[in-house]
Amino acid sequence: MQTDATQHSDAVDAQGHGVPASLSVLRHTRPLRHTNLFGCLALLLSAVAVVLPSTALSKDYIIEMVVFKNGSADRTSTTPQLYVPRIGNAMSLTGDEAAAAGFELITDDLSLTEQVETIKSSGQYQFLRHFAWRQPGLDDEQARAIRINIGGAFPIYIPENYQQYDDYIPASITALGAEPMRQINTTTLSGVLKVRLGRFLHLDSRLAYTEPSSGVTWRLDHSRKMRSRELHYIDNPRFGMLVRIVPVEGT
Predict the structure, then answer these.
(1) Which of 80, 103, 121, 208 has the most neighbouring CB atoms within 10 Å?
(2) Residue 7 lies in a domain
């Protein structure tokens, strides 16, 4: 699996997280009575739970994914335009940053092998990639995105002032145009994925499947509420994904 992102930088400001102030219920002006000792201990333990970062209490999950191409996509329904997704501070699964954050690429004992064989033998879909990774369950503020790159690499041009675009940057196969352009490298399928944990698990996808020869990019900008252990199907007219998220017992 290729894990190097499109080679353009997105500056992201770091967000600070405040620590709750000391709780006044833990302060006493008189000696504790024996009868309320256990109640005060319970309050103390709950206060510690509030102060601890959520990473200390998070459960690990394994996210397994099969990516495929739809061979019967209707190109006439798509307006010719190339895009590359913004990468931001997304991590490479094989990098030191991901390892330090508790992310680990998994290559053995994958469970969706039967679905892969069905895709390969269907005649309608083209298998692209089967991979998985392990990560902690992190909330909206702490969740980290990973970079995805599948397929051959090729050069593409984006505006020099690409920072003005939020999610997708318009691109061109040449540097010709009225505004200054910069060359970057991208892949056929590129983008970011992020799994976050709130009341439910969510998978955020910002992906692009680009065909430079036809001048078309199919975008998949989607957020899906995920039930653990269930197989989910996410697609657009050109490509799709089968996704299963399984909690790791004992974490």
Answers:
(1) 208
(2) no
Residue-level pLDDT at 71: 84
CB contact at 8 A, 201 and 218: no
Number of domains the chain is built from: 1
The residue among 142, 144, 124 whose CA lies nearest residue 134 is 144
| Cα(131)–Cα(39) distance, integer angstroms | 49
Inter-residue contact 154 to 185 (CB < 8 Å): yes
Match 């309608």 to its residue by tokens.
124
Assigned domain for 210 exists: yes
Please tell me the pTM assigned to this model. Answer: 0.75
Give 201-218 pLDDT, tens digit per residue: 999 999 999 998 889 999
Give which of 233, 189, 181 is closest to 210, Cα–Cα.
Answer: 189
**In this predicted structure, what is the pLDDT of residue 58?**
61
Q: What is the extent of the structural domain holding 192?
A: 57-247
Collapsing DSSP to helix, strand or coil, 38 comes out as: helix
Quote the CA–CA distance of 158 and 156 in Å, as a whole number.
7
CB 150 within 8 A of CB 2: yes
- DSSP one-letter string for 200-246: SEEEEEEEEEEETTTTEEEEEEEEEEE-TTSEEEEE-SSEEEEEEEE
- Assess if residue 132 is contained within a domain: yes
In a domain, 127, yes or no: yes
State both tokens at 39: 């109640």
At 63, list the tokens.
Answer: 């996210």
Model pLDDT for residues 75-94, shown as the tens digit of each residue = 655 668 999 999 999 999 99
